[in-house]
Automatic annotation (TrEMBL), chain A:
SMART domains, alphabetized: AAA, SRP54, SRP54_N
GO cellular component, one term: signal recognition particle receptor complex
Comp. bias (Basic residues): 236-247
Residue stretches making up the SRP54-type proteins GTP-binding domain: 617-630
Keyword Cytoplasm: no
Protein name: Signal recognition particle receptor subunit alpha homolog
PROSITE patterns associated with the record: SRP54
Compartments in which it is found: Endoplasmic reticulum membrane
GO BP terms in the entry: intracellular protein transport; SRP-dependent cotranslational protein targeting to membrane
Ranges for region Disordered: 130-254
Organism, as annotated: Ophiobolus disseminans
Membrane topology of the entry: Peripheral membrane protein
Gene Ontology terms for molecular function: GTP binding; GTPase activity; signal recognition particle binding
Automatic annotation (TrEMBL), chain B:
Transmembrane segments: 20-40
Protein source organism: Ophiobolus disseminans
SUPFAM superfamilies: P-loop containing nucleoside triphosphate hydrolases
Record-given protein name: Signal recognition particle receptor subunit beta
Recorded topology in the membrane: Single-pass membrane protein
Family: Belongs to the SRP receptor beta subunit family.
Gene Ontology, cellular component aspect: endoplasmic reticulum membrane
Amino acid sequence: MLDTFEVLTTSGVVLWSRTYVPVGANIINSLIRDVFIEERILPQPEDAGSKPTYKKEGYTLKWTASKDLGLIFVAVYQSLVHLTWIDKLLDNVRALFVGLYGEQLKAEHSSVVNCDKFGSYFDRQMHELEGASDSGAPSVRLSTPPSSTDNESADERAPAPPLLQKAQRPLYDTSADSTPVPTPDTSRPTTPAHSHLVTGKARPGPGGSRLSRRDKKKASAMSSAPVSSGDEASSKRKGKSATKRNRVWGEFGAEEQDDSVLDYSQADLRDGASENEAMEEIKQETWGRKTNKGEFILKDLDEEMDAIISAQNAKKEKEAMTTASGGLVGSSLGAIGGLFRNVVGGKTLTKEDLVKPIKGMEEHLLKKNVAREAVVRLCESVERDLVGMKTPNFTTIESTLRTSMEKALTKILTPTSSLDLLREIQHTNATSPRPYVLSIVGVNGVGKSTNLSKIAFFLLQNHHRVLIAAADTFRSGAVEQLRVHVKNLHELSKREGGHVDLFEKGYGKDAANIAADAVAHAQKNAFNVVLIDTAGRRHNDARLMSSLEKFAKLAVPDKILMVGEALVGTDSVAQARNFNASFGAGRTLDGFVISKCDTVGDMVGTLVSMVHATGIPVVFLGTGQHYSDLRTLNVGAVTRLLMS
Amino acid sequence: MAWYDEDSWLTAAFSPKLSTIIVTCIVALVLPILLHGFLYRNAAATASLPTFLLVGPSGGGKTAFTTLTERNTITQTHTSTQPLTVEALLPSPHIPASAHYRSAGDPAFERARRFLLLDTPGHGKLRHYATAQLADPKTIRAIIFVVDAAALAEEAGLNEAAEYLHDVLLALQKRYTSATTSKGPKEIPVLIAANKMDLFTALPANLVKHQLEKAITEVRTSRAKALRDAGAALSGGEDEVDEEKEWLGEGGEGAFEFSQMQEIGTAVGVVGANVLGQGEKGSVEGWWEWIGENL
């Protein structure tokens, strides 16, 4: 069963929610954090057919967004339950909510949206979809109590939604055999036509047509009473909703005509379907009249709801249509206006407007050595950001795109948490007897040992006692290389303070054991930082990578940094991913050191590619040959370089 | 029909016909009205109210406070990803300092009670919304730094809050020191709004102040020791001589205290309150009072 459904704004305010089973607020918070902010979990593309999902603590979350209004619709349910109609529910609720409250949402300097009565729409939508899915599952039908079907007053039904309604639905099935319940797939395109026909037939029918309409209204006023707060308010709202329905209805009617003019081929098909639908609809109505009046209100609300949903869908279609083919005059006027707006600003951006600038932006980023995968993702997120947005005054599309891309780059590069290494060392030393263990991994020849000694120099400057462990037992000369570094650093440490030593066990031994021994040795000899150098390994060699898991288990590093060189191109994404996944469950990389940044000029795209692949921040940049040429990341500078 | 013909439109436009006169009159009268309407609508949007900027780490209760001020009821909130501007009215017992001599019926009094609350996302990746505002604080009247007083009891929460606060105060100091006029920029007071006082583990306001001062001192020293950032190395190459770093407070020496910020025109106050109570509305009278003092 659905546990919670929430409508919230991107600024974090919950506009409307319906809770069946209370779910902690942290579930949705972590969805926002992981998916929308940190983009750790990439949603599947929309056209894959289903809505993106996110799993957390036994819950499954599905969501959809209305970008232009800044709305997020989230449905939360237990992962054990498999609900097939959630996608449809999200779509319908989005269309309904946007249709009903779109105007209110556009108000400036306000977060208030008065949507108390959305509950009844939502309940109705739930019943319909749940009913549709239940009719296919006989076991559920059997479990519902048969007594609750016949003499049910509307008042009783409203507060206890899902169970009772479930009982109602199957009854439809038995009374009218030929699929009276519109399945989600067919209902959308056909409902506008059928509701039209229903009203048309009702008017010439036997005298009581007007009366029945009035009854409907009366009954609906009754039924909305339990949902809303008081009688007065409910009647007022009723009036409001009636006018609203009329308006939408008119809009929709015009829409229908347009459709039929523009597209003859589909109109035929649609008419045929709608006639069929209308027949069944009448049957339902007669049945409903026989049993109780309560049925009508729901029907009424239903029609209104369908009208809103179809109007929204039609609007979308129309938007797509007008961009594809406008009238001759309209298009040329539009083109001139568009050109004018392009210069002056105030143009509402569409996908087509953005295709060319985004293409240019893609090429620009590719030239900056950003991996294609990362480029595509950045451009997609920028496109998502911009479509439906109005350009500010006196700005072109290009400059709008630029600022948006800068924002996206800043967002992707900015670390989530603080990266203060000294602070962490201080904290670890204060709380545990174990030294702070930092290990460095990476592909061959990227500069692991060099950057390790640079970090050692930085720590020595801050008067730490550093032990360097030579866990590269494979490449000849690796230990000797470190010995030279340690000798140099030792000389420097005499001037700067601190103490440095090398822990070595020769070649051919198991690296993980050496690392563990080094930590024990350091603890005994009061070193407070251990830096572990590892052998370089090719990231797509499973045999070499598998030893890293054992390494992580035995040495238990507080921080694992991966060195990547700025020179690498597209391969950076695969490198980062494979290393990130190689430490076994529950352990990932903690950061990147990007070396050789001084050799690439402004083509610093590797930074973006690596962070894109893993969501792990860049901690250090190597910018030269000296021990002091280690820098922290300056997001603003990198963004400027990439955009220049 | 050519333009020089007797009955062409050009001839008609210059001849003393009634229709020509009417059209001219209509154009002459309607055009200014339309222009006025257009300009008026555009200009009305920028009528500025004093803005209070809400900053602070994620989960502090910024959005909750925003909605509470706007609606006077509590609403459920989640992590923000976009800033939110809300127009609010100072609740009635509190009187704006700028209008304390006005009587209650005065329309100017009502106007003075209006202000904007600008809520910014607190997540580490989304702080650029707030920093962009701080870099150019023309409309910002005051800054409210909302912090979870219960989270401050733990080291991680304290560090995050202290680092963010350090950056905010440093931005304010830079604005003061880089000002070119002798008078200096207008003062921007900061309120450290210690939220969630109803929780058992929440630190009291004076302890919040003390802990934050201590943590900011630490942040300052570790910033001093840290590596330089890559800005100069990446863009210039030659100009390795970094521009001199600026230190928060009196030259970055000794222990940091909020009272040091008085020098740069920033009064820092710490007031505890809770937006949410035990399932119902909490009390944020202290914050409103502070807003009133600075409105």
